[in-house]
Amino acid sequence: MELRILEILNEIKSLIKIGGTIKWLSLSEVCEQVSLSKSSIRRAVSTGALKCCRTTGKLLFRVEDVERWLSNG
User: Fold this and answer.
1) Rg (alpha carbons) of the chain, rounded to whole number
2) Residue 11: is its pLDDT beyond 90?
3) CA 38/CA 17 separation, integer angstroms
4) CB 15 within 8 A of CB 53
C-alpha cells in the first residue's frame, strides 16, 4: 500500500513538472521503438525492470519509464 502511494505521488510530481501531460505508449509502440519483441517487453514488466500501467486492461507505458529502463539496461 505504501509503495502504491509513493508511485501515485511520483506520478503527480511528474504531472506538475511537465504541465500535466504524460505521453503513454502501447505495447506495440514500445516494441517498435526499442526493436524488441512483445514477449521481451512482457518479461521486463513481469520481472519489475519496466513499469507499466494496466488500468485500462492494456499494458501502457510512460515514455520516461521506457527511457529509464533503456538507460539502466
Assistant:
1) 12
2) no
3) 31
4) no
- Give residue 2's pLDDT: 79
CB 52, CB 63: distance < 8 Å? no
DSSP letter assigned to residue 56: T
Calculate the alpha carbon distances from 57 to 13, 27, 61, 71 in Å: 24, 12, 13, 27
What does the pLDDT average to over 16-33? 81
Q: How confident is the model at residue 34 (pLDDT cuts 50, 70, 90)?
A: very high
Q: Nearest to residue 30, comparing CAs of 45, 15, 11, 19?
A: 45
pLDDT over threshold 90, residue 6: no
Write the DSSP assignment of 12-34 as a string of letters: HHHHHHTTT---EEEHHHHHHHH
- Cell numbers given for 40: 521481451
d(CA 49, CA 52): 10
